Amino acid sequence: MQLRPNGPLVIFPFPLRDGQAGEAVSLLLGEVLLDINGQPYITGNMRGSARLAPGQLTHQFSGYLASQDDENRIDFFGATGHNFFSLESAFANVPTDAQDPADIQDQFGAVANNVFVQPNIVAIGALDTLDPRSSRDLMGYTAGIFQPTLNDGSFSRTALFESYQTNPLEVQIRTNAETNKIQAFIQYAEVGFPFEETLLRFGDLDIGAFGDMGNTSGQSIFVDDRGFAAIETAAESNSTNLDPITGLNLYLVTSDAGDYPAGTLPAGVNICDCQYLNWGFWGGSIYRQPLMGAAFRDDFHLATWVVGDVQDLATIAGMTGSADYSGHVIGSVATASGVRTWTGNFYYGVNFNNPALSSGTITNYDSANYDLGGMTLQGVSQFTTEDRHKFVGAITAPAGTDPSRSGSFTGSFMAGSGDGAAEMGGQFTIGGTDYQSGGIFAAKKVSATLP
Fold first, then answer.
1. What does the radius of gyration of the chain's CA atoms come to, in whole angstroms?
2. I need a surface site. Which of 74, 167, 312, 446 has the fewest CB within 10 A?
3. What are the pLDDT digits (tens) for 373-385?
4. Preceding amide of 95 cis, omega within 30
5. How far apart are CA 375 and CA 421, in angstroms?
6. Are 421 and 413 in contact (CB under 8 A)?
7. Cβ(254)–Cβ(227) under 8 Å?
């Protein structure tokens, strides 16, 4: 938790378990304001999603939160100082702090009585030592599984999605250390339907920080370079080439905010201790109304993203020698048994002299191993962004893995400390008989050989 007077508030209750156990993420995000009497109070939002078992639909949660007043309209209390506050599900009117009850609801419109409805006492902890804080423009990838579902829950299917046109410019996050805000957008498409894209926006508007025509607060939090979060952007249109969007509830959070209990990772799997790139999760519900047919929504739970400082093609194409990269993959797997989250190890050896001779592996991912073929470097661009690069390659199944499975990976080298290829991040998709999987990889350079 981070708390600052007249500033943002964020609490990350974020348990995640791998495989068959349940998975859940919740984000409490808001700001500390002063009421008309000069007393501080908290107003904000809650977003989250959960899957109790692989064969179940995900539950998406959304609602308002506020600090609770005492009889004197004081929100912070304690025997030796203002060290505590009580949060409840309520809407705090600005600037009076007059509160209206507001239940946490799931995507079916039902009241989620077991999710943060009753008041909860929160202690303000000691100030943490923050990681570096810098204003950055980051770009990268997203991939995973989502579930288009009729609003009454009577029908659902699973579908694989990826970054629109597998382009790193279609997933961007901007951080601003001065305002403690972030802004992000994710443009994705269902695999097999590359021109039916949807653009989602997260975070705050700020004319000074991001050049927007508007200014909002409380939709995002920038703690430091390793920890930030956001919900859907207020007063900003999202766009789609699919059925029109009528509403949405979204969250985006960095992986460093997570609580990974013992047993989360399979034996022998290690999360990359990357220094420069960021990766994390996003999710929520996107409500759609076709011109003909029943209303439905797209549900996302623990969808993954990865971003970093992606260099131009000339910088990467001009590199020589070789380098080894080690890290992890994390993604969603859909089978006849349902959908769940899995992690695995990632290794890739890059031959910068001849990228087609590069090779690598994904191991212990959903109890399976995969071979990564050579990469092809490509340039990418966008009308608002200068030339960047990506690499693409094939995924195949070695002996011992279901031979029907195959896929592809797309990624970019990400810079740090003067090295344009210090780390790499990207997306992967795998398909096979009764099998779909999509996610991201993150890896750092562990050795290099000069030419």
1. 22
2. 446
3. 999 999 998 765 6
4. yes
5. 15
6. yes
7. yes
Number of domains in the chain: 1
Query: Which pLDDT tens digit goes with each residue over 44-65?
Result: 888 988 888 887 888 888 888 8
Helix (H/G/I), strand (E/B), else coil: 355: helix
Positive/negative CA dihedral, 449, 372, 316, 161: negative
pTM: 0.91
* Token representation of residue 327: 């890290």
Measure the CA–CA gap between 77 and 83, rounded to whole angstroms. 6
Mean pLDDT of the 289-308 span = 89
Could you tell me the two tokens for 57? 């639909």
Which range marks the domain in which residue 45 is found?
A: 2-123
* Pair of tokens at residue 203: 């975070």
Q: Is the pLDDT of residue 353 over 60?
A: yes
Helix (H/G/I), strand (E/B), else coil: 168: helix
Of 362, 363, 360, 355, the C-alpha closest to 390 is 355
Q: What whole-number distance in Å separates Cα of residue 387 and Cα of residue 12? A: 36
CB count within 10 Å of CB 57 equals 17
Q: How far is CA 102 from the centre of its chain?
A: 26
Name 409's bridge partners. Answer: 393, 428
